[in-house]
Amino acid sequence: MEKHDGREAGRVRPGDLRDPWYDELASGWGEPDGTGAPTTPAVPAQAAAQRSAADIYLEVQASAAFQEVRRRYRRFVIPAVAAFFAWYIAYVVAATAAPGLMARPVGGAVNVAMVAGLAQFATTFLLTWAYARHARLRRDGAALDLRWAVYEQKRAQEQQERERELKRGVEW
Amino acid sequence: MTGDHQTLALVLFGVFVAVTLAITTYVSRGRRGSAEEFYAGGRLFSPMENGFAIAGDYMSAASFLGISGLIALCGYDGLLYSVGFLVAWLVVLFLVAELVRNCGRYTLADVVAARMRERPVRIAAGTSSVTVSVLYLVAQMVGAGSLVALLLGGTSEAAQTWTVVGVGALMVIYVSLGGMRATTWIQIVKAVLLMAGTLALTVLVLARFHGDFDQLLRTAADRSGHGGQFLAPGLKYGGGWTARFDFISLGLALVLGTAGLPHILSRFYTVPTARAARRSVVWSIGLIGSFYLMTIVLGFGAAAIVGSDAVRGSNAAGNTAVPLLALDLGGGADSTGGTVLFAVVAAIAFATILAVVAGITLASSASVAHDLYASLRRKHGKPRSEVAVARCAAAGIGALAIGLGLVARDLNVAFLVGLAFAVAASANLPVLLYSLFWRRFTTRGAVWSVYGGLVPALVLVALSPVLSGSPGSLFPGMDFQYFPLENPGLVSIPLGFVAGWLGTVTSRDRADEAKYAETEVRSLTGAGAA
Which of A111, B210, B403, B480 has a Cα-to-Cα distance from B266 of 20 to 30 A? Predict the structure, then answer.
């Protein structure tokens, strides 16, 4: 579905759940030979009013909105990782160290080991569903707002820079 | 195996090769050779397409033939494998998929290099990615060779050699001509074929037992010759404590390794957003989970219907369990149904190997061109040549994999896969997680954590019973075995994490706060994502 959103990226409003994935500002990022503008501006902060891209990220990182997104992500992911990892390790250790316990019958030919193995499948599916739901309802909207905030601040900063260059050109 | 099986299987496989080559030419017509196009297929795949492609990338012939065979021979202990392979995806979903999509462009090194000094970090991460890919590739090549030997009956050396060469040549063609777009479609086609074939066999097995799973288990236990023990852990890994620790080591490697496999990470760059990356992982967990559930039925079904002794008689490692099961389910060796089903299963296994091999080759050529070549070449080179380098790298890696695949012909496929996972978990995962989540992580920490996981993993394997000191070793005549376990994960994974921590706390320069802010904001919001 998202793949058709590209053309309209510019018109998507903040808060819109469609992702404005197309972003020409970022298209040189991480290039090893430095051809695509790494996020440092060409003109260092001579004017007090001007902020660098690094400042934008530091500011967003310190903002309450971002802290909330990060808090929501961590409060789901940290306990969930701890839980499934402990459960998996317990399963592997039990299977290798306590085969007697695992062989105990539960009903018919089914024993504890079989139930535990299938339970691993079940918890994996359950956690996948829970994570996807949590991310969709609790994080996606806020993350998209922030993405737009960064995008707009960067554009404003570029705009300022262009105007300054233009002015300098006129003075010369 | 009779001539009918072979001919039909070869015809079906020929059809698959023709279709995939057609796809390669079709999708690559009129495309510009941009890096975005070559490495990431234009980033325009839908979550469902990418989910199928991830599943196609991940479910190797080792899973299809190996795990069901292991279940048919050792019962429950085979099932332990599939649990590890599936649970690993939670690590990918929770900690890696979305964040990597947001922070990187083509490779794992992109994510790390964003906040570190680029050159040393790229060289380190590129080296470990290529190592993991080559190990995994060799496993698939060896698998392809033994599959053919199995099909043609006996172990015809020439046939094995030519298969390995042929598979290598095909993968170089797919990758260097079609790039990520062709690779993805081949993986999607393969995933659909594999799921359909597995589903059909599962339904036939369950129909044989009138849908009674309990009856299936009891028959399997009876015919295995182990009785109730067959359904409990311990037949394979229940020996001494060495065997048990070896299994724990493997379990750890399986669950942590998936998130460090370069060909899995590169799949997240083929979708437009982090949200699409998440949804593709959800798709792939659904597909992979149901696939492994079905292999359990197939494995116990092979034990119950074919019988463990017959399976062992055909191939000591159990790799023929599913083809034999298909033969029986279709109506026996002399029936048309049996012949057709057998040929279909064999062709699916071939297709599986080709698709996995293409994915790994692409990811490793990206590591060579985007990380290693870009860091090591002289400055002022032509910047547009990166894709050309990647195409050449694909051919080079193909040649290397063919060579190693021929040398390592006698190594166990499942062991090689386990080894690739162990190296990925030791060298790639620590640096990835530290870069994404640890504010104070430094360049030295990054470099140390890669080499601190990679070197111990490889050294421990060299000192393990796999290479020397036991009758089944690669060099049975020599003895330089000092490490008791076959899988190094239990030691090397913690070492990778410790080395990263140690490198960070001992480095003189502090971590760059602003760059970490950028990584953190980008990873969680998608700001400025490629």
Answer: B403
Cα–Cα nearest to B490, from B254, B233, B261, B262: B254
Give the pLDDT score at B224. 85
* Residues from chain B contacting residue A30 (CB–CB below 8 Å): 104-105, 110, 113-114, 530
Among B71, B213, B273, the residue to mutate for chain A (most A Cβ within 10 A): B273
- What is the model's pLDDT at position A45? 39
pLDDT in tens, B80-109: 888 999 999 999 999 999 999 999 889 999
Domains of chain B in sequence order = 3-21+60-376+398-525 (1.20.1730.10)
> A96 and B95: CB-CB below 8 Å?
no
Q: How far is B526 from chain A (nearest CA, A)?
A: 6
- Count Cβ atoms within 10 A of the Cβ of residue B503 and give its class: 0-12 exposed, 13-18 middle, 19 or more buried: buried
As a whole number of angstroms, the distance between CA B422 and CA B255 comes to 10
φ/ψ of A110, rounded to 5, equals -80, 130
Per residue in B129-185, pLDDT (tens digit) is: 999 999 888 888 888 777 777 766 655 677 778 878 888 888 888 888 888 988 999
Using alpha carbons, list the distances in angstroms from residue B166 to B51, B60, B104, B170, B248.
Answer: 28, 18, 34, 6, 37
B2: left (phi over 0), alpha (psi -120 to 50) or beta: beta
Rounded Cα distance between B43 and B41, Å, is: 5
Q: Which candidate from B87, B274, B528 shows the least CB-CB separation from A150?
A: B528
Spatial CA neighbour of B514 closest among B67, B114, B62:
B114
CA distances to A26, B279, B436, B515, B519 from A23, in Å: 6, 21, 22, 20, 17
Beta bridge partners of A111: A105
Contact B100, B363 (CB under 8 A): no
What local confidence, expressed as pLDDT, does residue B436 receive? 94
Q: What pLDDT score was predicted for residue B383?
A: 58
Q: How far is CA B366 from CA A58, B267, B372, B391, B393, in A?
A: 32, 12, 9, 9, 8
Exposed, middle or buried, A40 (CB in 10 Å: 0-12/13-18/19+)?
A: exposed
ipTM: 0.91
Could you identify the residue written with the tokens 């070869």? B10
Interchain CB distance below 8 Å, A124 and B285 = yes
The maximal CA–CA distance of chain B, rounded, in angstroms, is 74
Beta carbons of B214 and A1 less than 8 Å apart = no
Q: What is the pLDDT of residues A85-96, one digit of tens each?
A: 999 999 999 988
Residue ranges for chain B with pLDDT beneath 50: 1
State the DSSP string of B417-472: HHHHHHHIIIIIHHHHHHHHH-TT--HHHHHHHHHHHHHHHHHHHHTSTTTBSSTT
Helical ranges in B92-212 per DSSP H: 97-103, 108-113, 118-152, 157-208
Average pLDDT, chain A: 75
Query: Half-sphere exposure (CA, 13 Å, Cβ side) for B181?
Result: 23
**Cα angle B311-B313-B317, degrees, rounded to a multiple of 5:** 65
Express each pLDDT in B8-37 by its tens digit: 878 888 888 898 888 888 887 766 678 888
Is A39 an 8 Å CB contact of chain B?
yes
Beta strands in A56-96 (DSSP E): none
